[in-house]
Amino acid sequence: MEFLWTIFEYLVVVGLVLVLGLGAAIVFEAFSRRFNHAHAEGHPIFEDPNSLKQVPCPYIFDPAEKYISLIIPAFNEEHRLPGALDETLNYLQQRAVKEKSFSYEVVIVDDGSADGTKRVAFDFVRKYTVENVRVILLGRNHGKGEAIRKGMLHSRGELLLMLDADGATKVDDLEKLEKEILEVAKRELGDSPDHDSSLRISDIPIAAFGSRAHLEERALAAVKLDSTDCQYPVAFICICFQLCALLSGVKLMVAKYNNVQLHFMFQRKWYRNFLMKGFHLVVLLAAGPGIRDTQCGFKMFTRAAARKLFTNIRLKRWCFDVELVYLCKWFRIPIIEISVNWSEIPGSKVNPLSIPNMLWEIGLMSVGYRTGMWKIST
């Protein structure tokens, strides 16, 4: 018994040392990021592969030259990027034909990719010209948050939309976010008795967040398989589905079976729901209530909102979205949360190893802002 007590004491001491060490590391890292260097950064240069000339880079404080900018961060997206860009640019071109006042640009930020992402991106610049498609090269990998920050700071749109390189959200859903922003802007102008009639939508700070919260409420997903179209035995098909479910962390139920069709039902296992709810709780404590889905990669900002937010943001990786929520609340920028069509795309960069980094960044943010080490520029 005395031996077990000694082991317990030892584990307690080790645990305390680890907690204190982690706390000290968070404080030190937060202190090292206390200065915001956004205003002092050098501007990147856009390369035009058609003329081999360098194009001057705009800045977020310059007047808007386009109606909308789409910022796409890309890290090793050689295979998924072409499909997403084809869909995006087809939509933008068709809309530009229908609406003569509609102008756009797509800004691809290559976050230090080691594959052919750069080549793919410049192929689209050659096809659509540097006026419509531009590429920012970061040289080395900084993280999704930093890639989006760079793209936002050097875009020309009145509206700025960030979206993922995998095309998980349909690009035409931007119209939902755009519509809500326009309605809020009209109300803001209408409620102000002394508003300037020359104000544009880009002058009013508003943020619209795409949301997948409505999808999280659906615990079940159904799959119907016609066995007559399949060359494999039914038993083999069932085993394959069970293995896929086990590896994916979901529960599989054969809801219905006959000689022709198999009906499968997939349900998230309890620990996946537990992790999801646990992360939401941590976000709630760090950034406060109000947003059900902070991590959807489909968000739109007016130029005025982007100017305030992305010159202050410090987190560089997955949890920069949480910092955006915090900053929106600090600046009292209206946040609209809108359901979007989202689908799982193979090849996600988020994995269980991302969770410690997310918690680390949330810890940094909490310490940085609550101790006053991270000053917000107004």
From TrEMBL:
What is the topology of this protein in the membrane according to its UniProt annotation?
Single-pass membrane protein
Task: Answer yes or no on keyword Metal-binding.
Answer: no
Query: Molecular function (GO) terms listed?
Result: dolichyl-phosphate beta-glucosyltransferase activity
What domain of life does the native source organism fall in?
Eukaryota
EC number annotated for this UniProt entry? 2.4.1.117
The Glycosyltransferase 2-like domain, residue ranges: 69-182
| Keyword annotations | Endoplasmic reticulum, Glycosyltransferase, Membrane, Signal-anchor, Transferase, Transmembrane, Transmembrane helix
Q: What class of enzyme is it?
A: transferase
User: What is any one of the record's Gene Ontology cellular component terms?
Assistant: endoplasmic reticulum membrane
Enumerate the transmembrane spans.
Answer: 7-28, 232-254, 274-291
Q: Which reaction does it catalyse?
A: a di-trans,poly-cis-dolichyl phosphate + UDP-alpha-D-glucose = a di-trans,poly-cis-dolichyl beta-D-glucosyl phosphate + UDP
Q: In which pathway does it act?
A: Protein modification; protein glycosylation
Main location per UniProt? endoplasmic reticulum
Example GO BP: protein N-linked glycosylation
Where in or outside the cell?
A: Endoplasmic reticulum membrane
Family classification: Belongs to the glycosyltransferase 2 family.
In Swiss-Prot or TrEMBL terms, this protein is called: dolichyl-phosphate beta-glucosyltransferase
State the organism named in the record: Rhododendron griersonianum
Native organism taxonomy: Eukaryota, Viridiplantae, Streptophyta, Embryophyta, Tracheophyta
